[in-house]
Amino acid sequence: MAMRISDVVRSRDMRPADEAADLQAGPPIVEADDFSVFYGSTEAVCGVTLGIPAGKVTAVIGPSGCGKSTFLRAINRMNDLIPSCRTTGKLMLEGQDLYEPGLDVVTLRRTVGMVFQKPNPFPKSVFDNVAYGPRIHGSHSRQELSEVVEGSLRRAALWEEVKDRLSDNALSLSGGQQQRLCIARALAVDPDIVLMDEPASALDPRSTARIEDLIGELRGHYTIIIVTHNMQQAARVSDMTAFLYEGRLVECGPTARLFTKPREQETEDYITGRFG
Amino acid sequence: MHLGTRKVLDRSFAGLGIFSVVLMSAALLVLLGPIFVRGLGAFVFRATVEHHRFILEHFGRGDRRQVQGRIAAARQSREPLYDMIARHEDELWQSFRAIADRHKAEAAVYEMIESREPDLPRALRAARYSLTEDGRHGRDALDALEQRWEVFEELREKVRVLLGPLPGEQFALLRKQYGQTRWGRAQVKLHDLLYDYDYDYSDPNQMGRKVYVPRVEQFEGTAVEPLFAYAEDNLHAMLLPRWTFYWRFLFDESFDAHFFGGIWPAVLGTLYLTVGTMLIAGPTGIIAAAYLAEYARQTWRVSLIRTCISTLAGVPSIVFGLFGLAFFVNTLHVSDSRSVLAGALTLAVLVLPTVIRASEEAIRAVPQTYKEAALSLGATKWRTTFTVVLPAALPGVLTSIIISMGRAAGETAPIIFTAAVSLGKPLKLWQTLSQPTPALPWNIYNLATEHEAVDEIRHVQYGMVLTLIVMVLALNVTAIILRARISRKLRG
Considering CB atoms only, which of A81, A106, A123 is closest to B490? Predict the structure, then answer.
C-alpha cells in the first residue's frame, strides 16, 4: 500500500467540487444533533452533530476507541444490549427521533441493516441464513423466500459461488464468502440503510477487495455507513467521510476534499499518519 | 530449576497420571465385570424342565409337544424316587399298626390305620389317649414314630422344593407348583436334600460351628435310604436342564414376587419415570436457563437464585424423596397416593439444578455475535433466543438433559415415597397419572434386602442391575453421539 491517500482519491477520477455539490442535493437521511452516548459515566460519543446523505457511502474513520463503532451502533440501537448505555441529544432517521420512547426497535432494525466486523453467519444453511430476516418478518412461502434469497445473494455478488450449496452449513464457506453472506442476509430484509462495522478488517486483501467492490455496486441503492480504521479503504469506497477523535466529530465532508484538503489540523495529522 | 529436575518432575507427573488412569480402568473392570457376568446369568442359564413347563403354562410359549415330552421323561425318572417316598410312608403306617397291636388299641385306631384318614401325625395324636391310658405305655413309641414322621416330612418338603409337588398334591401358591427352574439353584437344593445341618458346640470357647450331616443317616434301613444316592445320580434326568437364552426376561411380567417371569413392569416403570421426568424438567430447565442467561439482570437477587440452584444440586436425594411425598402427594394431591406422576415431579425437582446449570453454561457459550446478527435483522429478543441462541446451545443442553435422564433412571431414594412399589403389573400410559409402579432401582434395593427369599431371586436382582446399567450407559452413549452429530452440523 505505497499509494498515498490523495492518490487513491484522485484515482477514482472524481472532481471534488462536483461531489460536494452532489452531496448537498437531498436532505440527510440520518441526522445527529448534539448526540452523545454514555457507558455509565464514560462519554463515548460527545455531542456529535452530523448529517448523512441518502444513497451515498459515508465512512466514519478515527483511531481505536474514538467512538465510531458506538456511533454506528446507536443508529440501529444495538447499544441497547449494553445495560449501562444511555444517550442525550437527538439522533434522527428521516426526521424520526430514534431514541423517542415507544419507538419500535424491530421496525427500525428492519430499515437499518448491519454487517459486523467479524463474519457472523448463523450455524445454519446458507439458505436459512439469508432467509432468516424475511422469515421473522412473516414471509414463509418457499417460492417467495427462494426469490428473496437469490436476489440478495446476487446483490451481494455471492450467488454464483454458492448457488449449488445453498443447503450447506454457512460456516463451511470461506471468511470472505461468509462476510458477503452476512451482507446478503442484511440486504434480504430490504433495508434503507446498511451499517458496516469494519466489514473487511478480519479478511485477507483479496476478500477485502471483493467487499469493497461490492460496496461500490451497492452505492446508490442503499445508504451505506461504514466504520473503518483503514483510511485507504475509506478513501476508496466512500463519498463522504467523518473523522471522529476521542468521541468528538472533528471534521466531516466529501471524501475527496477531506483527504486532500483537510480543514482541521487533527485530521491532517491523522490522515498523514502522525498518530492513531 | 535444573533441566534435569524439571524433566524428572515432568515424567513423574505423567507417570502418576497414567497410573491413576490405569487404576480407574481396572476398578471399572473389576466392578463391571461381575455385574455383566452375573446379570447375563438372568438371561442365559441352564433352564430345567420346570422352567419350560412354567413358560408353556403361563405364556403359552414353547413347543408344546416337545416340552410335554420332556416333562413325561422327567416324570419317569422321578418315579422311583416318588415310589421310595410312598413306600416309606407305608412303613410308617406299618409301624403305627405295630404299636397299636402291641398296646391293644381300640377299633377306632385301626379304622384310621385302614383308611389312612386323617394323616399320620393327626392320627397319632388322636390315638394317643387310646394307647397310653389304663396302664398301656405306648407314649414313647408314639413319640418316636412322630419324630420319624417329622424327619420324613422334612425330606418330602426338600423333594417338593427340588422337583415340585409330589404326585397327587395341589398347591395354590405358584412357587409351590413348580420345582427348581434353574439348574444352578437345583444343585443348591439338592445339597439341601442330601445334607441336614447342625451346630457343633463342642468347643465352649467358640461360637457354634455349622456342620453338615448326611440326611441319609436319619433313614438307615428304611425304604428311602437309597433315595439320596438316586437323587444325586439322577438329578439331571429328573430336571433335564438345557442352555436357554431367556431374552423375554426383559419383557415378561413377573409372577409370585419375582420367583418366576421377568422384569418388564420395573423396566417400563423406569422408562415412564425417566421420560416423565424429562418432559417436566427439560422445558422448565431450559426456559429457566434461558431466563438466567439472557434475561435476568445481574443483581444480587439473581446471584442468590443461582447460589440456591447450586445448593439444591447438592441436597441428598432422600431429602427430595421426602419433599416429594410432603409436597406433591400430601399437599398438592397430584394423586391419591404414590404415582408415576408424583415420582416424575420429584425426580424433576432433583435434576432441575443440573439441567439449569449446564444449560445456562451452554447458552452463555453461544457467541454474542449470533445474537447481534439476529437482533440487527429485527428479531425480537425471544425470537433470537429461540431461533438462534437455543439451537446453537443445543449440544450442551441436550447433553445435560440426557445425563440427567441417566441420573433420574438410577435414583432410588426420591421414588421410595413417591412412586415405587415392589410388585405390580405393567402400567398403561394413562395409569401413570394415578398409580405407582415398580422401578428398577427400587426393585434392586428391595430384592437385595427386603424380599422374603433373597437367595432364590438373586438372578432377578442381577438381571435388573445389568438392565439398569445398560439403560444408563445407552443414554450416555446417545448423549455423546447426539452431541457429536449436532456439533458437526453446527460447525459446518
Answer: A123
